[in-house]
Design a protein that fits this description.
The protein is α+β, with helices and mostly antiparallel strands and 88 residues long. Helix content is 25%, strand content 16%. A two-stranded antiparallel sheet has the order 1-2. Strand 1 and strand 2 form a beta hairpin.
């Protein structure tokens, strides 16, 4: 029977083989979901899926692309927005 803190489904169950050859169940935190575009909701490329403490220790240039609206809009939406701004 698992301990009370491990009964929550917010932790994922992982079967791991230990050096003695036995298979044991470990409890890990789940990975966060992929970043989404603010306009169309598509998944953003170039942004890692990290837990907050992992993202905190990462360099700013590794967290999002170095372009206008990088990390907020997908490439197609950013292109449309830049062209619309240029026309006005």
């Amino acid at each position: 029977m698992p301990a009370g803190k491990h009964k929550s489904r917010s932790l994922r169950r992982v079967q791991t083989k230990i050096p003695s050859g036995k298979t044991v169940q470990r409890y890990e935190k789940r990975n966060p979901s992929k970043a989404k575009c603010g306009e169309c909701g598509a998944e953003l490329s170039g942004i890692p899926r990290g837990r907050p403490h992992e993202m905190q220790n990462m360099a700013k240039t590794k967290k999002r692309p170095e372009r206008p609206y990088g990390g907020y809009l997908c490439t197609q939406c950013a292109r449309k927005k830049i062209i619309a701004e240029h026309r006005v």
